[in-house]
């Protein structure tokens, strides 16, 4: 049934497609770039269709190449995971999670002690770079937690919770806000589509006139800096109900007019289809589901 499949060429194709480089694929496979090029050319001849567009100093997948890569990558990943389950268990397994610095600092890390207590042999690494990772291209990342308004039809996913934004401050600042207009703390959003004109939307819904005249506004590049400013009593912050949950639970921040909330986006945990069956990934998904339910905000 599989005797005619050119397995060596398919392996070279998967590597070159994932890395988008014949040279990088050659390094990964410990062969020469010429050998990789020859294997891919022979695969194209065998199929009768081009798989790559050869451009100056780069290659790009054709539509046919993209379809083949998605199915082949998932199949090889499943084979690799099946082989791993047959090997003697090592002392520890590794798991790489990509998410935003704010979600890691304000929601994930404070809860990770419970994950480590349950799975002491899983070594977890957090990647909090801002770049959005293509999981089909970067096999070094097992799972991502993303904040978005969109869907991900090509990935296996778990919707954790939907987000809303409210106003929070230290107990002293919240008490003062009833008497005079407070200093407003906000974040310079990297993606304005996710949350544009937040304070204006909240004030319009609440009827507060804080934005009239020349309001005092302090902006920070990251949510965790804005929350720390609010905890320190520097003003009221417009913040995610998800990211502020630990500070509220600890009494560091309280809601100001908590009934007034502005809709945000949603958080989802995602991986390449098939990888959710890998034991460390499966364990992390199960733990995330429990924590989302415990938080009182999910599952969405």
From TrEMBL:
Residue ranges of every copy of the HTH lysR-type domain listed in the record: 5-62
Top-rank taxon: Bacteria
Keyword Transferase included in the entry's annotation: no
Alphabetical UniProt keywords: Activator, DNA-binding, Transcription, Transcription regulation
Pfam families from the UniProt entry: HTH_1, LysR_substrate
Zinc-finger keyword on record: no
Any one Gene Ontology molecular-function term assigned to this protein's record: sequence-specific DNA binding
Membrane-spanning residues: none
Gene Ontology BP, a term: DNA-templated transcription
Protein family according to the UniProt entry: Belongs to the LysR transcriptional regulatory family.
Protein name: DNA-binding transcriptional regulator, LysR family
Organism: Pseudomonas mandelii
Origin organism lineage: Bacteria, Pseudomonadati, Pseudomonadota, Gammaproteobacteria, Pseudomonadales
